[in-house]
């Protein structure tokens, strides 16, 4: 991998990490186009590490909210008067909602990095999960704001987040859909999706760091890809929050289906190999 590859992959990561179109799927496609071995441990490690740039963008964008959650949750552990605060509850929601994906990600690590790193999987998941996103919008009452968020919401969304470990599903597409099925409005579902992404993707990036730097991908390329992902992701987060306030996530469905269909045609025709 050279610096040009790292920059392109950083842009793709930043653009797609928080949109319901699957960043892993897009990165896998882009890596294939760039001539990289998509199931190479160094490449999959690089993919996980540059996600940390996107997560840093979320941390910076929501810095005030995150500080309030961390501070209130910490104080609430020793001071009972803080335990009724919404931010104290949100701290527990993020922690408990992250546990499922942590367990599944660890136990299924080899399957995720090897068996699922196929463009066949990406194509089918892009099309298949589009139906779920459509159903979520059809079922959405959007009757509940973030103030009405509860532990069951966090657990359900956290469990559904596990499905996003399949390339092509989309972590945000999965978690926002789950939030809509729970009756949350789009902004509340999207903000919960963002908060749940922080520990999950940071842990994945740290865990894969040794593979990214232990192979043929240099520190410089990894750093450049991460910085580019941060810059682009920051703009993407701001845009998505404004977008979902006024538009359904089904706006992304035609693109997902079209991309998945094109992939299936290319794979079936032997124009592109799956790995």
Topology readout:
Elements: H1 3-16, H2 23-33, H3 41-61, H4 63-76, H5 86-107, H6 109-115, H7 119-139, H8 151-161, H9 171-181, H10 186-214, H11 219-244, H12 253-268
Helix pairs in contact: 1-2, 1-3, 1-11, 3-10, 3-11, 4-5, 5-8, 5-10, 7-9, 7-12, 8-9, 9-10, 10-11
How would you characterize this protein structure?
This protein is mainly alpha-helical and 275 residues long. The chain has one domain. Helix content is 74%, strand content 0%. The protein is built from twelve helices and no strands. It has helices at residues 3-16, 23-33, 41-61, 63-76, 86-107, 109-115, 119-139, 151-161, 171-181, 186-214, 219-244, 253-268. The protein is globular, with a radius of gyration of 18 Å. 48% of the residues are buried. The mean pLDDT is 90.
Characteristic key phrases:
single chain, 275 residues, mainly alpha, 12 helices, 0% strand
CA-to-CA gap between the ends? Answer: 17 Å
The geometry reads as globular
- Average predicted confidence as pLDDT: 90
Question: Roughly how many Å is the radius of gyration?
Answer: 18 Å
Tell me the major beta sheet: none
Please state roughly what percent of the residues sit in beta strands, choosing from under 5%, 5-15%, 15-25%, 25-35%, 35-45% or over 45%.
Answer: under 5%
The ordered string of helix (H) and strand (E) elements is: HHHHHHHHHHHH
| DSSP summary, beta strand count | 0
Question: How many helix segments?
Answer: 12
Q: Count structural domains.
A: 1
> Could you name the ranges where pLDDT drops below 50 across 5 or more consecutive residues?
none
How helix-rich are the residues, as a percent range? over 70%
Which structural class do the helices and strands define? mainly alpha
